């Protein structure tokens, strides 16, 4: 099966690579997790067959699957789970952020391992089954055999090598051209049924090239997102199908609450009322998106308060609010976005929507790293008036999005919103294990956000994936956004 990706991986080390577009989308062919999430958010056994939680919520004990082998022939045991944790922490690798609540990983016996937490966490298990930073391996023997110096954890070697327990083994890698990987014959799930024996992952940067190769049958599946107009054309192409599925992603435009007119909640509410949400969904996604009214997607609990639905396009009340705030003749603002097709379209809608109230929008387009650097500046130093970007829940829990509205995240992506009260709700919900109480906390938080209007929440785009009609087994999983289940795919 031939698949396309837009970018060559920067690393295949699961400790170092935690984001799609940099290698995570490739290394998942080579590595497994202890548990997996399905598309509904339910957790299933993987390398662990079962688990139990202590009464105080501080210890998770896992029974491990027997007969699992790493690609170098090493057996997968409790010692290897502990070694994976030790390596990630010692390297201070990006994956370490997902293990920050783990105090100790203890080997009970070769098939049993216990995770001791610093504090009880309702999200520990879904995080362990999530898409980032929780893959088992590489094996201890493989790491020690490939260290340049003792204790370097073979960090350089695993940039372009692998040693996991996953269904496929790396074969060849021609940088910026293609990667090939073959079925691992000793994979623990076995090879009964229909599976792909060999993948060819081509690096195709131009969407038009991917479109042409798909229609010609030289490409089986375009794994990365394509412009909406390409999908519209492919829907009518012979031999090609486009899968559409719900996501846990939202488009949001945040206000800089420490700059100019954006300090005034009346101005923020006016802009939220001026924005043309219907036109945005049509122009940016050709209708392939759902409207959202709050900071979390419709597919994640709790329910957004009905009061939030007041934010629909309503020009005259918006003009009155601006006049009350002292801006009857409008003003000029700077809007920062990343260079992505949907955000260019959403920026055009923002510009035309706000022009009706004499607000001039000057859109500044940059790469995501540049935009992220601006978002990460301290409170009071962020250079934009408004900024647009996506948020998504990588686990079936609202904390994965709402945690970023803590004031501690002001130097990450929080635009300057929140106080001690809202922080207490966020922090409390991240340690409380009773879901009903957590839901109440999050409802209070979202109600406060709805009143303060720190952002415009626009839509929840669908995930579109183009493939040949003879490709089978593809299921989009919102909790593994941008990843493929290689083992599940087949061709007829």
UniProtKB/TrEMBL annotation:
InterPro entries: Peptide/Ni-bd (IPR030678), SBP_5 (IPR039424), SBP_5_dom (IPR000914). It holds the Pfam family SBP_bac_5. GO terms for biological process: peptide transport. GO terms for cellular component: ATP-binding cassette (ABC) transporter complex; periplasmic space. Residues 42-408 form the Solute-binding protein family domain. Residues 1-20 are annotated as: Disordered. Residues 1-19 have a biased composition (Polar residues). GO terms for molecular function: peptide transmembrane transporter activity. This is Peptide/nickel transport system substrate-binding protein.
């Amino acid at each position: 099966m031939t698949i396309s990706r837009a970018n060559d991986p920067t690393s295949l080390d699961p400790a170092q690579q935690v984001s799609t577009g940099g290698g995570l989308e490739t290394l998942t062919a080579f590595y497994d997790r202890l548990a997996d999430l399905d598309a509904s958010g339910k957790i299933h056994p993987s390398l662990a067959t079962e688990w139990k939680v202590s009464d105080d919520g501080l210890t998770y004990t896992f029974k491990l699957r027997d007969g699992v082998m790493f690609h170098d022939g090493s057996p997968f045991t409790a010692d290897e789970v502990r070694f994976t944790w030790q390596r990630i922490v010692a390297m201070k690798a990006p994956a370490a952020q997902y293990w920050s609540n783990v105090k100790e990983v203890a080997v009970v016996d070769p098939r049993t391992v216990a995770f001791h937490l610093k504090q009880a966490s309702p999200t520990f298990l879904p995080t362990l089954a999530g898409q980032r930073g929780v893959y088992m391996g590489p094996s201890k023997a493989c790491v020690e055999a490939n260290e340049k110096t003792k204790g370097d954890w073979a960090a350089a070697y695993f940039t372009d090598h692998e040693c996991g327990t996953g269904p496929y083994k790396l074969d060849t890698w021609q940088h910026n051209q293609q990667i090939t990987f073959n079925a691992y014959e000793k994979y623990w799930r076995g090879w009964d049924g229909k599976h792909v024996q060999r993948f060819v992952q081509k690096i195709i940067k131009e969407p038009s090239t991917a479109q042409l190769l798909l229609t010609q049958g030289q490409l089986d599946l375009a794994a990365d997102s394509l412009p909406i107009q390409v999908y519209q054309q492919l829907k009518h192409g012979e031999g090609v199908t486009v899968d559409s599925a719900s996501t846990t992603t939202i488009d949001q435009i945040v206000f800089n609450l420490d700059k100019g007119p954006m300090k005034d909640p009346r101005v923020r509410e006016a802009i939220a009322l001026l924005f043309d949400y219907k036109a945005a969904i049509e122009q940016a996604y050709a209708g392939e998106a759902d409207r959202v009214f709050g900071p979390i997607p419709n597919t994640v609990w709790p329910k957004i308060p009905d009061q939030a639905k007041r934010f629909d396009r309503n020009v005259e009340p918006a003009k009155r609010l601006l006049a009350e705030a002292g801006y009857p003749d409008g003003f000029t603002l700077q809007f920062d976005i990343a260079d992505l097709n949907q955000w260019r379209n959403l920026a055009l809608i923002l510009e035309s929507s706000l022009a009706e109230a004499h607000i001039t929008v000057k859109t500044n387009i940059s790469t995501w790293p540049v935009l992220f650097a601006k978002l990460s500046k301290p409170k009071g130093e962020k250079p934009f008036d408004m900024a647009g970007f996506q948020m998504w829940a990588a686990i079936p829990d609202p904390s994965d999005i709402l945690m970023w509205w803590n004031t501690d995240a002001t130097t990450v992506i929080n635009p300057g919103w929140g106080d001690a009260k809202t922080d207490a709700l966020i922090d409390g919900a991240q340690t409380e294990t009773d879901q009903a109480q957590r839901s109440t906390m999050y409802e209070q938080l979202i109600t406060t956000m709805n009143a303060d209007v720190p952002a415009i929440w626009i839509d929840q785009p669908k995930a579109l994936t183009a493939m040949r009609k003879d490709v089978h087994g593809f299921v989009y999983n919102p909790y593994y956004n941008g990843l493929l289940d290689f083992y599940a795919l087949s061709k007829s």
